[in-house]
């Protein structure tokens, strides 16, 4: 059986030269395995090599009662003909919520992915999280208020070659379990 390509969400970390603390960024890409993503990771954050590592990752296959599949753009006419899609196709969004706690010298972040028909609906869903309700000055990073410029349609932030090759298919499947998250320190050369 041939493996199907999967969407991955990674929390990348490194301590670049001249920095006092570890820095982090989120990276999305498509591949058959984590190891397949290494060249794209290094291209995404070239100044981080060779210290870059993965602090957390997940395969993104289930979000908010929706199944997330990866389809080749070549296969799209057949998939589109077979699908009974709604008038507005649901999309997958990444939101980085930021907030503060009294007497904590830190901006805390809560990263979510959600399915919505547009950015405004995705922001509304982000504002329903416990983090947003309980953090002081919670905001969609980097503003003191909700700003649609600070969320991303995941299809738009995939690496260029991946966007040309694949498309994300988001279909409802109520009751589907969310994907497990893998936390730890994962060296790229050990994948």
Key features of this structure:
191 residues; alpha+beta; four-stranded antiparallel sheet; 11 strands; 19% helix; globular
Question: Can you describe this structure?
Answer:
- Residues 19-69 form the DUF1543 domain.
- InterPro entries: DUF1543.
- This is DUF1543 domain-containing protein.
- This protein has 191 residues and is an alpha+beta fold.
- It has one domain (6-190).
- The chain is 19% helix and 39% strand.
- The protein is built from 6 helices and 11 strands.
- Strands 2-1-3-11 form a 4-stranded antiparallel β-sheet, with helices on one face. Strands 6, 7, 8 and 9 form a 4-stranded antiparallel β-sheet that branches.
- Strand 4 (62-63) and strand 5 (66-72) form a beta hairpin.
- The longest helix is centred in the middle third of the chain and has 8 residues, at 119-126.
- The protein starts with 5 loop residues before the first strand and ends with a strand.
- The model is unreliable at 142-149 (pLDDT under 50).
């Amino acid at each position: 059986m041939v493996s199907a390509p999967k969407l991955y969400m990674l929390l990348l970390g490194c301590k670049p030269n001249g920095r006092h603390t570890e820095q982090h960024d989120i990276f999305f890409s498509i591949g058959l395995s984590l190891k397949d993503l290494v060249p794209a990771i290094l291209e995404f954050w070239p100044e981080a090599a060779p210290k870059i590592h993965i602090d957390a990752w997940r395969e993104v296959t289930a979000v908010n009662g929706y199944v997330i599949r990866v389809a080749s753009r070549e296969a799209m006419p057949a998939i589109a003909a077979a699908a009974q899609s709604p008038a507005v196709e649901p999309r997958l969004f990444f939101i980085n919520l930021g907030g503060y706690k009294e007497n904590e010298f830190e901006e805390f972040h809560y990263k979510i992915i959600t399915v919505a028909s547009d950015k405004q609906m995705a922001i509304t869903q982000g504002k329903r999280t416990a983090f947003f309700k309980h953090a002081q000055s919670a905001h969609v990073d980097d503003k003191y208020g909700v700003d649609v410029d600070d969320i991303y349609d995941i299809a738009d932030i995939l690496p260029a070659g991946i966007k040309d090759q694949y498309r994300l298919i988001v279909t409802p499947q109520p009751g589907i379990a969310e994907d497990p998250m893998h936390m730890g320190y994962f060296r790229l050369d050990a994948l």
